[in-house]
Design brief:
The chain is of the alpha+beta class. About 25% of the residues lie in helices and about 30% in strands. It is built from ten helices and 20 strands. The strands form three sheets. Strands 5, 6, 7, 13, 14, 15, 16, 17 and 18 form a nine-stranded mixed beta sheet that branches. Strands 1, 2, 9, 10, 11, 12, 19 and 20 form an eight-stranded mixed beta sheet that branches. The model has no long low-confidence stretch (mean pLDDT about 95). The structure holds flavin-adenine dinucleotide. Pfam families: DAO (PF01266).
Length: about 400
């Protein structure tokens, strides 16, 4: 790489968001380069593996409407990529703190197909799960293959002329006249008219070495990065094991359970765990870390025991012995919102908060619009009232 290397838009990070932005910018004719410190859909980031929940239920209709829009974008992405990225199978929500009745009201309001079932009726339909409240069923839910989505978006982006450079870690972003010079950890440089930072859990580390207007920096919300633990538990019933045929549903639905005791989520693990079982994790059961560079990748043994106990009591359809486990990074923002805003040709995209995957292709469009000079969505802007709470 030489000092002269240049591009119109440089995207830092090839996870779900960087790849979505690259696709949307490249197909609009923008010259795009994506740099990634590791490899695309890095196993050290937040977009690796085959399983993320796709569901419509949110306590706030704003997000349910956004999911509805995002589903259309995923349909289009699947068509362009010629592959299935969301496997159907439906989604369940239950538990006192999840408030299925309220969620059903939101789905009514937005017009999303659903059913609210008494616990006894749900137990008949899904005997592998113990329900402690009414249960919300969304037949439109399913499982997103995150890693395949990243690869599909990057393939479409490179087909449209984008360039991907792996193992290139941005160390600093400095203004130089009307453009930016981004320098890697090895001293290579790329000049770009605009830069999109989609660095996931490494955002705060990179911002320290980024020239941004201080008025903008001062308003940035505080992100909390946690190293989360997730486990795969085998299905007891052999009939549930195996890869679904294309278009066919998974044998189990996804579920979110929030009670006073614990918040969990679970979904068919897919390819990551040989289609043998259900991925299950405690929501925010992980350990806070400063940023992506300080993760250990080690499972917390106390959390593992807690989840084994939970499966024993709550999910009789699974054998309470994990056969695979993984860590993953959450980048949480206040109110579990997303940050998508720009200042002086620099776009910051931090849409994780533990639930961003289902919006990826749509948020890629939002990022492209920011590059083209649009004003940030008020909900995702640095001026969002949500951030004021913790600032
Ligand atoms: C355990 C877990 C479960 C989740 N479950 C769900 C779910 O069920 N449903 C849902 O919708 N969402 C879910 N999510 C959220 C979703 O996966 C994230 O919103 C999404 O992956 C965020 O993508 P990203 O591109 O912002 O970050 P990442 O995927 O982390 O991508 C950032 C990339 O930037 C790279 N990078 C960082 N710094 C630099 C640098 N300086 N130079 C170059 N490259 C750099 C990193 O290596 C990384 O590859 C979950 C997330 C986790 C971790």
């Amino acid at each position: 790489m030489t000092e002269q290397d240049s591009t119109q838009v440089l995207i830092i990070g090839a996870g779900l968001m960087g790849s979505a932005a690259a696709h949307q910018l490249a197909v609009r004719g923008t010259e795009v380069t994506v740099v990634e410190r590791d490899t695309a859909a890095s196993e050290h980031g937040s977009s690796h593996g085959s399983a993320r929940i796709f569901r419509y239920a949110y306590p706030d209709p704003f997000y349910t409407r956004l999911v509805d829009q995002a589903r259309g974008r995923y349909d289009e992405l699947e068509r362009l990529a010629g592959q299935q990225l969301i496997t159907p199978g439906g989604a369940l929500d239950f538990g006192t703190l999840r408030d299925p009745r309220h969620l059903a009201g939101v789905l009514d309001e937005v017009g999303i197909d659903h059913e609210l079932l008494p616990a006894s009726a749900a137990a008949e339909r899904w005997p592998g799960i113990n329900f402690d409240t009414e249960v919300l069923w969304q037949p439109g839910g399913g499982v997103i293959d995150a890693e395949s989505t990243v690869r599909a978006q990057l393939r479409l982006a490179t087909d449209a002329g984008a360039r991907l450079i792996e193992r290139w870690e941005a160390a600093s972003i400095r203004r130089d006249g009307t453009s930016y010079v981004v320098t890697s950890t090895t001293g290579a440089t790329i000049r770009a008219a605009q830069v999109v930072i989609a660095a996931g859990a490494w955002l705060s580390k990179l911002l320290v070495e980024t020239e941004l207007p201080s008025a903008f920096i001062d308003r940035l919300p505080q992100a909390v990065v946690t190293q989360e633990n997730a486990y795969h538990f085998p299905y007891r019933d052999a009939a549930d094991i195996g890869e679904p045929k294309p278009g066919a549903p998974t044998s189990w639905p996804t579920f979110i359970h929030k009670s006073e005791r614990i918040l969990t989520y679970s979904l068919p693990g897919g390819r990551d765990a040989n289609f043998r079982g259900q991925k299950l994790a405690e929501f925010l059961g992980g350990t806070p870390i400063t940023d992506g560079s300080t993760q250990t990748g080690e499972i917390d043994p106390a959390n593992r025991e807690r989840i084994i106990d939970y499966v024993r009591e709550q999910v009789p359809g699974l054998v309470p012995e994990p056969y695979a486990e993984t860590t993953c990074l959450f980048t949480m923002l206040p109110e579990e919102d997303f940050l998508l805003d720009a200042a002086e040709g620099l776009v910051i995209a931090s849409p994780c908060s533990g639930h961003g995957a289902k919006f990826a292709p749509l948020l890629g469009e939002f990022i492209a619009e920011l590059v083209f000079g649009a004003t940030a969505h008020p909900r995702f802007a640095v001026t969002s009232p949500a951030w004021a709470v913790t600032r």
